[in-house]
Amino acid sequence: VAATQPSTNWHLKDNARDHHTSKFSSEELVVRRGQAFTVTFNGTQQPEQNITFIAETGPKPSKMAKTQATFGISSTVSKESWSAVLQSASSGSVSVSISSPPNAAIGRYRLSVQSPASGSSSPASLGTFVLLFNPWSSGDDVFMPGKAECEEYVLEEFGIIFAGNKNRINSFGWNFGQFQEDILNICLSMLDRSLNHRQDPATDVSHRGDPKYLGRVLSAMVNANDDQGVLLGNWSGKYEGGKDPSSWTGSVEILQGWKKSGFRPVRYGQCWVFAAVLTTVLRCLGIPTRMVTNFSSAHDADSNLRVDEFYDAEGNHLERGADSVWNFHVWNESWFSRSDLGPSYSGWQVLDATPQEESGGIYQCGPASRIAVKEGEVDLDYDCPFVFAEVNADCMYWNYEPTTGKKTLIFSEATEIGQLISTKAVGRDDRVDVTKDYKYEEGSTKERDIFKKARKKLGLEDKFDPTAPTPEEVEQKPDISGKFKVPGPLQVGQDLSLVLVLANLQSEPKTVDAKMTAWSTLYTRKPVAEIWKDSIAVTLSPKEEKQFPIKIAYSDYQKQLTADNMIQVTALCHVEGGIQVLVQRDITLDSPAIDIQVLGEAKVNKEVDVEVTFANPVAVEVMDCVLQVQGNDLLRGILEIDLPPLKGSEKSSTKFKLTPSETGPKHLLVNFSCDKFAPVKAFKMVNV
User: Fold this and answer.
1) How far apart (Å, rounded) are the C-alpha atoms in residues 4 and 36?
2) For a Cys-Cys bond, which of 454, 469, 585, 609 suits 376, CB 3.0-4.6 Å?
3) Where does the chain bind Ca(2+) (predicted)?
4) Is residue 329 annotated as a catalytic residue, yes or no?
5) Please, is 65 exposed, middle or buried when counting C-beta atoms within 10 Å of its C-beta (0-12, 13-18, 19+)?
6) Does residue 2 carry a pLDDT above 70?
7) pTM for the complete prediction?
8) Which of 150, 187, 271, 384 is labelled catalytic?
């Protein structure tokens, strides 16, 4: 006779509190490994001592693969294996405290119980629960000693993303939403849809206790390349058939959209979207994770630690060669130990889900130990050379003559790449600079020694490189210097004022012919459209410095600006009898401000009014105005408000109601979009 189905009490509230999983919105028990949880069940008429439990995960559970465990009731908790300790027993109801080992595979488990009375009949199922990584437990690979750090990097659903360029950093809020409806299930589906799982499900599941393995697999699954993953990248500046990457404000919509469409890639992502979604997934599974922005980030496609940029005689930036320098690039750091490399390489590990280069035949990147990157240990797993180049590559600027194919070095720059590396502070909405954790001080002997060490390990020291400039070319000294000065903030919708400053460094007069262009670009500095060009010819007296004001009208750039609000201004100066001088500057235009006011005190389950005010920065009417509002624990899902067209320079004010569901500091995210300029984002901390 089959045993009668026992009824199970999972003690959801108490277990969740002890395991830091109270924020999950599921009816299923969610616990962390290496820590005890309580379960009570009835339907057994046996002396408790004879009960056997079976916990198993994945399609082919086995003891060998550590995806199945059978254990009886014991008097003490085992550190190495699954165990159960009796809490109480009375009239057929049994309460036990079950513990998993700190290296158990994470995922959904089935728990069943077998008692001798049921004889050879199959074990009685108690139900399912989900097991996650445990950064609060010292035995776990992801153990993070600081409590505030665990709160930020695992439990915090709000993030700040840094963007713009090295001259002007801007930031915007993001809703990670790792505890929102169905997100945990979607994260588990991601694992089951990975290439590794499709090729060999049993082996894949047996490796799921290892954060190195999961981080690498998920860095591949967040992009759609190779595996029909979550997001399709698009850096064309044209986003038909999907959403402009800059219009997303959170991961929940993206992950839920992926599932709703039958797991077809969501269109479209760019680096910060890939990194934000990977943050959501890793925090959800319990791996401490944060987003990091690198300004002037190198994409070194040919692993020679050098990035080549080409300009024609007119000063136009040419798309030649696969190398590029992005105004900024966003990746992730996750915190775990590196048993494969040794304890000195544990701590923050770089993961990058943006599909830039293949690694092991698929678009994935990391984990690369941040310490290994700083020390130039580029031979260590995984993908250290690529990450090392992102923050350290040398930059070469060439003049390229398309008709003859001749290239001439204009200048080389060893300190340009990898600046102001930024992440959000723990417990505060501030920027923290982590550049010194990636490299020694720029220009110091130590930094140059590490660069040489990395070159040597990559075998670049000994082999002749015909594409490299000659030492003579590198040593050339220019006769003049130049720079673009920006006198004040540059706003979307306004004419842009810049100053080109040219200085004669020599004691004799110099004649200069400067060809100037301005292009709208993506944040990857990919040129989109020319918006302005001009030229000046001037003779500079000995040691003279001259200023040339430049004005670019709104009407010149209005139609060509991408959602990145970025323009690259270039002056290629041909100096009589000397080498050419390239002057360039990347400009990020400031979006207009949005003002958010909470009118009154925010209290749980009480309505409160919010007013959002916005002034049209342009002199023409803007149409298709939509206000999107979201914020976990403040409102459910995303509120969309269609607004009437806004006349030139007109102010608009919108009111809506929130009903907070939880106390504490919460973040409200607002996104205003229209037909004339890029989405404008703002966030406000609301104390409930």
Assistant:
1) 27
2) 454
3) 392, 394, 442, 447
4) yes
5) middle
6) no
7) 0.95
8) 271
